[in-house]
Amino acid sequence: MNKGFLKSDPVFSNADPFAVSAYINRHIGKHDLSVTTNKGDATLQHATLGDVGVLQVHYGRQATVQAPSLNKAYHLQTVIDGCCAIRYGENEVVLGVGMAAMVPPNVEAEFNYSNDCAKLIVKIPEELIHKCCLATYGHVPKKGVRFGPEGLLLGDSQSFSRLIELLEIESKSTRGVVCASSEPLRLFLASKLFEWFPHDIESQTRYGQRDIENFFSVVDSYIDAHIYEDITADSLSTVCMVTRRTLYNLFSHGRGIAPTAYIKQKKLKKINEILQSSSITNCSVTKVALDFGFTHLGRFSAEYKQLFGEFPSDTIKKQLAS
């Protein structure tokens, strides 16, 4: 395992994973842990600066963490080793080494750790994000700040690693208590998050409704013309001639979901049209799903049902019976 970001002595070393989980429940957020084996080789390091928490955790085996709600706190998740799949709301992202994602507060979330996964988790209170947002942009959205859900490469950033190092040093020198000199560091952390991650603030002041609709006219035309292809957020950025950050800002403001989720919905709606057509008699659900790039058929069926209220096979049965 890589050494990671925190240099302080571990709170737990070669420990029972459920003892580590209990500690995280007390200091970071409520969750339920399930692991493949109960071998005692979990490790954990922890630093705090007031209500900002920095945690480095390694369970030592495949593990699933289910959090009913990250109550009033954002969680910056950065993978140090292995990989971690994160699901919250309609969003799903798989993080590899060095990749990071922001999980918003007040949503159910699931984290699936690989057996070699080590992760840095920074807990940032919602109040701190709102304070920084108000100072920088002059307002806070009614629904709160939402950062782009997709992962980005952050672990190799020297500014990120130095910032974590400063947080740990300040935590030691102040024994975790916020003082006058440490408050600017906490605000600096919040401001860097707005710099690193796409968010929905600028779009609310820079883009009018006509701009949004013109943008999605281009997006929809491109997706419809390439519906059978592997369409990515980067390809949409190129077609629309905007940066990746602006793309996510426009999607967040205009449709309320990430580009990848929007693309998936468009593909599912097209599949639904095909399954309801008279030409479906000689075609299988599997073939249609694969034609549109859905290789995980169980997940495809579940996502189809979530959108249309029935499985793909049920749609075909209704069509054949009509």
Index terms:
322 residues; alpha+beta; Jelly Rolls; Arc Repressor Mutant, subunit A; 3 domains; seven-stranded antiparallel beta sheet; five-stranded antiparallel beta sheet; 12 helices; 44% helix; 21% strand; globular
Descriptive overview:
This protein is 44% helix and 21% strand. It has three domains: 12-199, Jelly Rolls (Sandwich), CATH 2.60.120.10; 203-256; 263-321, Arc Repressor Mutant, subunit A (Orthogonal Bundle). By secondary structure, it is an alpha+beta fold. Helix 2 (126-137) crosses helix 4. The longest helix is centred in the middle third of the chain and has 17 residues, at 158-174. Strands 1-3-4-11-6-9-12 form a seven-stranded antiparallel beta sheet. It has a five-stranded antiparallel beta sheet with strand order 2-5-10-7-8, covered by helices on one side. The chain is globular, with a radius of gyration of 22 Å. The chain has twelve helices and twelve strands.
